[in-house]
Amino acid sequence: MSGIITTCCDKQSYLYRSVLSAKAHSSQYINCASFHIDCPRRKIQTRNSPTMFGSLSSLQPRQLATQVLNFALVLSTAFMLWKGLSVATDSASPIVVVLSGSMEPAFQRGDLLFLWNRGLDTKVGEVVVYNVRGKDIPIVHRVVRRFGGGEGINAPPLQLLTKGDNNAADDTELYARGQDFLNRATDVVGSVVGYIPFVGYVTILLAEYPWLKTVMLAFMGLTVVFQRE
Length: 229
What we know:
Blueprint: E1 4-9, E2 14-19, H1 52-58, H2 61-89, E3 95-97, E4 112-116, E5 127-131, E6 138-147, E7 159-163, E8 182-183, E9 188-196, H3 201-208, H4 211-225
Antiparallel strand pairs: 1-2, 3-4, 4-9, 5-6, 5-9, 6-7, 7-8
């Protein structure tokens, strides 16, 4: 018999259709009720959501080692990118965050600044980042005066006087004891060439709440370890 045969499975609410080759001009239909089909019940296996320590214990040693290496790869990649950016900009800290409001309205607290340090000729009006001798806190202020500089071996070193746009006085009181000006070659980290507003607030939070660093690193590590390929 040629045509279309339709079979039904009422118990499981499944409809199976198989099409046979048909050469006749009219198709013939066969009532589903004339067939008795036993549909086997499929066993659906469910499993409970694994806990953190359960997932960790279920990992094979090789899988665990692979995930740990993946996490180490992420950290090493970030480190290499940072070092590569330092070489390209000739700055030990090519990216810094504004920590205070001394440069408002030009820069707000939490702004992310990009620095460039190739070329030691700094003009009045440029915004620079410098480190105070004996301290490890970078300061972002504007150059208001410059002294010395020039070409040649015997030229005096370029010295700068800086001031915050939102401050009433210059930075003389911020410099190291006995220092009246900044040495452009040794004290300045770089000149500001661009910024992204408010992105650096994460860094400020990590500095004000050190325990957040541990939480963030732990979260990143667990995310990589429990990630399934």
